[in-house]
Amino acid sequence: MLNVLCLRQSLRQWNRNLLNVTCTGSKVNSPKCVTDGAKTPNLIQPLLNQTRTLASLTGFQRKTSSEDHNTSKSKLPIGLLTALFSGGVLLIYLKQQLREAQCHSTFSVPVDDQHAQSKWKDLKIKLYQYQTCPFCSKVRSFLLANRIPFEIVEVHPITKREIKFSQYKKVPIVVMENGDQRMQVNDSSVIISALSSYILDQGNQKLDTVLCEYSEEKEIDEKLSAGVKYRHTLNLDHGLLTDEDEIHVENEAEWRAWADNHLVHIISPNVYRTLGESYQSFKYHVHYGQYKNGFDKSLALYGGTVAMWLVSKMLKKKHCRDQDVRIVLYQACKQWTDALKDRDYMGGLTPDLSDISVFGVLSVMEGLPIWNEILENTSIKDWYYRTKGYVYEQEYESPTK
User: Fold this and answer.
1) Residue 283 and residue 142 in contact, taking contact as beta carbons nearer than 8 Å
2) pLDDT for the residue 65
């Protein structure tokens, strides 16, 4: 969904820039625009330069009034043609400017980027994860995309000794420390929703106050009948949202729930479909772990291989109606890309939380043999690599195959 604040800021800047261009001339049908090259706004000058270049290359040079008079009956007015080219260049350039805007966040509602970044100043954040876990990848992608500083702690998949401090024995776990205060948040969607609500809060609420809204006790007491939806809902001041913002927020929550309730459950049956594929996946996984010795590493590799192969069979029976798990995965990718329509992201010009969630889930398959099959049999690659570029703030080209 559209990053509303970035768009509004860009349009306001565009209006200010337009006012800085001075047009003179007594005749309405032949104005002469004069700009001061040293004072021309950065957004306008490249547009003027590109328009002049296009006009020169295509032969649409400014003609004298007599030439205009002689050709006006047989050809379109040069001013109209120039306007059409200018409009096209303007559209492309504005889109580029919006993509390069400093509002680098993943929200479907306005966010004060400077205020948001200041909230992490005194916090030390640790993400306890498995590198190839789709739930962990969601959280990791969210933190990266929103430029939230954090440290990764890779958890041993068998012993789980890194999280022995926690009664909750699943990953991801996020632990935040601020001086003597220590806060723990469990469940990938709760982590994303809670931290997003904290970023978007303009009332200077403390982090622990925001986290209380997503505590397990509150969910059991107040949201038991809609617990899954609650995990994907942001705690916002809806009085400050426009009708369009409300629609965006609701759509975002629905797709985040789809990623958790459907997409993520068909990853394991595909990645760990056979013992051989499961072994290849865990061979990739143990590359990121820190192990005491060779036996410890072998335990993670071979124990994880067998365990996840067995888990994949249970998930296949529960979540894959078609016996061919690849078909189920391709259909899910198609469902997502069909919903995108002609947009760059589900969020519009920038990713929203649903883009980041779906990207995080799918990214655990990149680098594995299954990834080439996905690229060959779906149309997911353009959106995927565009989103990857946003998350990692780098340029990624979509593979030709």
Assistant:
1) no
2) 44
Write the CB contacts of 190 (distance below 8 Å, at least 6 apart in sequence). 214, 231
pLDDT, tens digit, 9 for 90 and up, residues 154-173? 998 888 999 999 999 999 99
The larger pLDDT score, comparing residue 70 to residue 396, is at: 396
Distance CA 230, CA 235 (A): 10
Count Cα atoms within 13 angstroms, Cβ side, for 96: 9
Tell whether pTM > 0.90: no
Unique residue bearing structure tokens 């655990």: 364
3-state SS, residue 361: helix
Query: Is 70 exceeded by the pLDDT of residue 399?
Result: no
Q: Which of 346, 356, 342, 353 is nearest to 388 (CA)?
A: 356
Contact 210, 197 (CB under 8 A): yes
Q: How far apart are CA 45 and CA 50, in angstroms?
A: 9
Q: Which of 318, 320, 337 is nearest to 377 (CA)?
A: 337
Q: Which residues are catalytic?
A: 130, 133, 135-136
CA 211 to chain centre: 23
Q: Which residues of 240-256 are buried (b: 16+ CB within 10 A; e: fewer)?
A: ebeeebeebbebbbebb
Q: What is the mean pLDDT of the chain?
A: 75
Tokens for 109, please give them.
């509602």
- The band of 80, judged by pLDDT with boundaries at 50, 70 and 90, is low
Q: Give the Å distances, CA to CA, from 2 to 88, 177, 194, 244, 389.
A: 21, 33, 21, 10, 17
